[in-house]
Amino acid sequence: MTTIKTPRARRARKTGRRHPLASIALIAIGLLFTGGAYAAFSTSTAVATTDASSQQTIAQGEKLFAANCATCHGLSAQGSSEGPSLIGVGAASVDFQVGTGRMPMQMQGPQAQKKPVQFTAEQTAALAAYVASLAPGPGIPAAALLDAAGDAATGAELFRINCAMCHNVAGAGGALTEGKFAPAIENVSAQHIYEAMITGPQNMPVFNDMNIAPEDKRDIITYLKYVEDNPSPGGLALGSLGPVAEGLFIWIFGLGALVALTVWITAKSN
After folding, report:
1. What is the pLDDT of residue 146?
2. For labeling, which of 34, 65, 129, 245 is most exposed (least CB within 10 Å)?
3. CATH for the 32-139 domain, from 1.10.760, 3.30.1330, 1.10.287, 3.30.300
């Protein structure tokens, strides 16, 4: 028996058909979910890898600390009669002291002397990571603050107000009391200058962000690098040590030249 399809039945069958774009939509939804799941998995894996890497760095720093620093600073960096506690000094302090060769100290004295660096950059970073893991403290400054692209004029004013009384207006350094001294800042990296300001090594006061803002520290670094890169406009700078050195130079060489000229004139007349 032949079944005759009415127009209504044909329309119902046509309405029940899948839209031509349905397949594309399903593929797009599948790709979206797959990509999202992959991204989430990748992020979690990256975080786990970073944490593992950080823990490995801290563990390496702890071993280096026990072998090279614990004699003075204690096995847990709690300090001793030979050295201060390092809990809370932060990564910046370690990077400055170790990165400039001041630590480990060559000998006991009024202050640590700068000397050739004894650790590689990787070992220094590991030591800094270990000490930073003990308690919060000043961290390594951001690269944007170390580009020496600030305002040199503002930096010069800030340096004269806050630093020149010890380091000299040209950063040439100067003597302090009891055998201590403010070191010269010439050829010191921008990172170590910034770290010195926020950690206050040796006899230097701490200039935190409440005293000198990060942008102002950047301006000070800009000024110091400008002085370092530009020769003295007055000719022979005599170490940029100021009027005492210049006066001594005049007395020794100026008067010496006058005495020599007098002797020469007298000898000619005789």
Report:
1. 96
2. 34
3. 1.10.760
